[in-house]
Design goal:
Blueprint lengths: L5 E6 L10 H18 L1 E9 L2 E8 L5 H19 L14 H14 L13 E4 L3 H17 L14 H6 L9
Antiparallel strand pairs: 1-3, 1-4, 2-3
Helix pairs in contact: 1-2
Length: 177
Protein backbone atom coordinates (compact mmCIF):
# COMPACT_ATOMS: atom_id res chain seq x y z
CA UNK A 1 0.00 0.00 0.00
CA UNK A 2 1.58 3.28 -1.12
CA UNK A 3 2.47 5.68 1.69
CA UNK A 4 1.57 3.23 4.44
CA UNK A 5 3.53 2.97 7.67
CA UNK A 6 4.10 -0.58 8.89
CA UNK A 7 4.67 -1.93 12.37
CA UNK A 8 7.15 -4.78 11.89
CA UNK A 9 8.12 -7.55 14.28
CA UNK A 10 10.80 -10.08 13.41
CA UNK A 11 12.21 -12.70 15.77
CA UNK A 12 15.36 -14.75 15.99
CA UNK A 13 15.13 -18.44 15.23
CA UNK A 14 13.99 -20.32 18.30
CA UNK A 15 13.74 -16.96 20.12
CA UNK A 16 17.44 -17.26 20.93
CA UNK A 17 18.57 -14.07 22.78
CA UNK A 18 21.39 -13.07 20.39
CA UNK A 19 20.83 -9.36 21.01
CA UNK A 20 21.91 -9.60 24.63
CA UNK A 21 25.32 -9.20 23.02
CA UNK A 22 25.89 -5.44 22.55
CA UNK A 23 27.97 -6.10 19.43
CA UNK A 24 25.03 -7.72 17.70
CA UNK A 25 22.56 -5.04 18.87
CA UNK A 26 24.86 -2.30 17.53
CA UNK A 27 25.35 -4.23 14.31
CA UNK A 28 21.57 -4.46 13.79
CA UNK A 29 21.24 -0.69 14.25
CA UNK A 30 23.99 -0.20 11.68
CA UNK A 31 22.30 -2.59 9.26
CA UNK A 32 19.04 -0.63 9.65
CA UNK A 33 20.95 2.55 8.78
CA UNK A 34 22.56 1.00 5.70
CA UNK A 35 19.31 -0.62 4.52
CA UNK A 36 17.51 2.69 4.99
CA UNK A 37 19.93 4.35 2.58
CA UNK A 38 19.82 1.48 0.08
CA UNK A 39 16.09 0.72 0.11
CA UNK A 40 14.73 4.23 0.76
CA UNK A 41 12.41 4.04 3.74
CA UNK A 42 11.55 6.15 6.76
CA UNK A 43 12.27 4.59 10.12
CA UNK A 44 10.06 6.22 12.73
CA UNK A 45 11.00 4.03 15.66
CA UNK A 46 12.63 0.77 16.67
CA UNK A 47 13.56 -1.34 19.63
CA UNK A 48 15.91 -4.28 19.70
CA UNK A 49 14.98 -6.78 22.37
CA UNK A 50 17.12 -9.83 23.21
CA UNK A 51 15.29 -12.04 20.69
CA UNK A 52 13.36 -9.71 18.38
CA UNK A 53 13.09 -6.36 16.62
CA UNK A 54 10.10 -4.03 16.45
CA UNK A 55 10.14 -1.16 13.96
CA UNK A 56 7.85 1.41 12.36
CA UNK A 57 8.82 1.65 8.68
CA UNK A 58 7.41 3.60 5.74
CA UNK A 59 8.69 2.72 2.26
CA UNK A 60 9.20 5.88 0.20
CA UNK A 61 10.70 4.45 -2.96
CA UNK A 62 10.25 1.45 -5.19
CA UNK A 63 10.98 -1.16 -2.51
CA UNK A 64 8.32 -3.06 -0.60
CA UNK A 65 8.29 -4.10 3.05
CA UNK A 66 9.26 -7.72 2.13
CA UNK A 67 12.21 -6.41 0.07
CA UNK A 68 13.31 -4.09 2.89
CA UNK A 69 13.07 -6.82 5.52
CA UNK A 70 14.86 -9.31 3.28
CA UNK A 71 17.77 -6.86 2.95
CA UNK A 72 17.96 -6.09 6.67
CA UNK A 73 17.75 -9.74 7.72
CA UNK A 74 20.08 -11.10 5.04
CA UNK A 75 22.81 -8.47 5.52
CA UNK A 76 22.64 -8.70 9.30
CA UNK A 77 22.80 -12.51 9.24
CA UNK A 78 25.81 -12.46 6.93
CA UNK A 79 27.71 -9.92 9.06
CA UNK A 80 26.80 -11.52 12.41
CA UNK A 81 27.91 -14.95 11.27
CA UNK A 82 31.08 -13.48 9.77
CA UNK A 83 31.98 -11.68 13.01
CA UNK A 84 31.38 -14.80 15.05
CA UNK A 85 33.24 -16.99 12.59
CA UNK A 86 30.16 -19.11 11.99
CA UNK A 87 30.45 -18.88 8.20
CA UNK A 88 34.10 -19.93 8.04
CA UNK A 89 35.14 -16.91 5.97
CA UNK A 90 37.48 -14.28 7.34
CA UNK A 91 39.29 -11.53 5.47
CA UNK A 92 43.06 -11.84 5.24
CA UNK A 93 44.81 -9.67 7.88
CA UNK A 94 46.34 -7.48 5.16
CA UNK A 95 43.04 -7.09 3.22
CA UNK A 96 40.96 -3.92 3.55
CA UNK A 97 39.44 -4.00 7.03
CA UNK A 98 41.27 -7.22 7.84
CA UNK A 99 43.10 -5.88 10.90
CA UNK A 100 39.94 -4.32 12.32
CA UNK A 101 38.07 -7.56 11.71
CA UNK A 102 40.86 -9.58 13.35
CA UNK A 103 40.68 -7.37 16.46
CA UNK A 104 36.90 -7.71 16.59
CA UNK A 105 37.13 -11.51 16.26
CA UNK A 106 39.75 -11.59 19.03
CA UNK A 107 37.39 -9.57 21.26
CA UNK A 108 34.49 -11.89 20.47
CA UNK A 109 36.59 -15.02 21.04
CA UNK A 110 37.91 -13.71 24.37
CA UNK A 111 34.82 -12.01 25.83
CA UNK A 112 31.77 -13.72 24.47
CA UNK A 113 30.55 -17.27 24.67
CA UNK A 114 29.36 -18.18 21.22
CA UNK A 115 25.90 -19.60 20.81
CA UNK A 116 24.31 -21.22 17.80
CA UNK A 117 24.86 -19.80 14.34
CA UNK A 118 22.69 -16.70 13.94
CA UNK A 119 19.37 -17.13 12.17
CA UNK A 120 16.07 -15.28 11.98
CA UNK A 121 12.68 -16.91 11.94
CA UNK A 122 11.79 -17.21 8.27
CA UNK A 123 8.99 -14.66 8.29
CA UNK A 124 8.06 -11.42 9.98
CA UNK A 125 4.80 -9.92 11.21
CA UNK A 126 3.53 -6.64 9.80
CA UNK A 127 0.60 -4.43 10.64
CA UNK A 128 -0.46 -1.43 8.55
CA UNK A 129 -0.88 1.64 10.73
CA UNK A 130 -4.45 2.85 10.32
CA UNK A 131 -4.34 6.38 11.68
CA UNK A 132 -2.46 8.77 13.97
CA UNK A 133 -3.78 7.13 17.13
CA UNK A 134 -2.65 3.69 15.90
CA UNK A 135 0.78 5.18 15.11
CA UNK A 136 1.08 6.72 18.59
CA UNK A 137 0.00 3.43 20.23
CA UNK A 138 2.64 1.49 18.32
CA UNK A 139 5.48 3.96 18.90
CA UNK A 140 4.59 3.89 22.61
CA UNK A 141 4.58 0.07 22.53
CA UNK A 142 7.99 0.01 20.82
CA UNK A 143 9.63 2.38 23.27
CA UNK A 144 8.07 0.85 26.37
CA UNK A 145 8.64 -2.80 25.42
CA UNK A 146 11.85 -3.01 27.54
CA UNK A 147 9.89 -1.72 30.57
CA UNK A 148 7.09 -4.24 29.99
CA UNK A 149 9.70 -7.02 29.75
CA UNK A 150 11.26 -5.91 33.07
CA UNK A 151 14.66 -4.92 31.66
CA UNK A 152 14.52 -1.25 32.68
CA UNK A 153 12.32 1.10 34.69
CA UNK A 154 12.34 3.98 32.17
CA UNK A 155 12.38 3.90 28.36
CA UNK A 156 15.47 6.10 28.09
CA UNK A 157 17.52 3.51 29.99
CA UNK A 158 17.29 0.92 27.16
CA UNK A 159 20.26 1.51 24.82
CA UNK A 160 18.85 -0.35 21.78
CA UNK A 161 15.87 1.86 21.06
CA UNK A 162 14.98 5.01 19.16
CA UNK A 163 13.39 6.52 22.27
CA UNK A 164 15.97 9.28 22.73
CA UNK A 165 15.82 10.29 19.06
CA UNK A 166 12.02 10.17 19.11
CA UNK A 167 11.72 12.46 22.12
CA UNK A 168 14.22 14.94 20.62
CA UNK A 169 12.62 15.19 17.18
CA UNK A 170 9.74 13.27 15.69
CA UNK A 171 11.29 12.64 12.31
CA UNK A 172 12.67 9.71 10.39
CA UNK A 173 15.62 8.18 12.23
CA UNK A 174 19.09 7.16 11.17
CA UNK A 175 19.45 9.99 8.65
CA UNK A 176 23.20 9.99 8.92
CA UNK A 177 24.96 10.50 5.59
Amino acid sequence: MDGAVYFITTKTKGNYPYFRDPILARLLIEELRVAKQMKKFRLYGYVIMPDHLHALIQPVGQFTIPQIMFTVKKQFTHEANRIYGWNGKNPAPNAAGGQTFARLRAYVDYNIKTGPRFAWQSSFHDHIIRDERDFENHIYYIHHNPIKAGYVKQAEEWPWSSYREWTNEKTSLLDLP
